[in-house]
Amino acid sequence: MALPPGQNLPYEVKTATSLESSDYDGIVLVSNKVPEDAAYPQPIIKLLQEQSKIDKGFNDDITLLHSSLPASRFVYAPTGNMTKEYDDVRSYAEAAKKGIARALKAGITKPLLALPSDPNFPKSEVVTLLGAMEGLYTNLQYREFKPEIFPKVKVLGIWSPKLDGAGLESVVSAATTLESARWVARDIGGTDPERMAPPVINQ
Known about the structure:
By secondary structure, this protein is an alpha/beta fold. It is built from 7 helices and 6 strands, in the order ββαββαβααβααα. The radius of gyration is 18 Å and the shape is globular.
């Protein structure tokens, strides 16, 4: 099952102005620490602070929690400490991919991704979004074998505690363009040799 003509990705990607939106059935928050920024709803900050008090490994592992927000299900996807000199921005992509995988396992079909804001890694937002999008990719042959499982989500919402409307739209636009190209590249490189041949690719 190829991507529909004129559609870059098989699911809708849209920005959100609040984590308290009722348009989603789960939240995936990627961060290098428990957030304290006032932009986050207080119930989320309180929930994460309480969990971190009873679990020393809370900032090291993916955790699924129940929140009082409309989305209800809440996936915390930490990168771990990002202050070491050899830390890499790719840690955000890896955390986002794992967070999305956990959300899918929980049955979430309309996740709202909360992007990080790390001054040490200016591209952390777009890298995080690309990591989440990679987690939503389905192999071409598997899509053809089981079309009923494709796409994995109906919509992917994006929220940022720091970026304004235009800034967030810019991140989403860049990530969507890049992921559309990466999707095609994976389809080509991940199939059998016959289908990877240039004449067949054109078909």
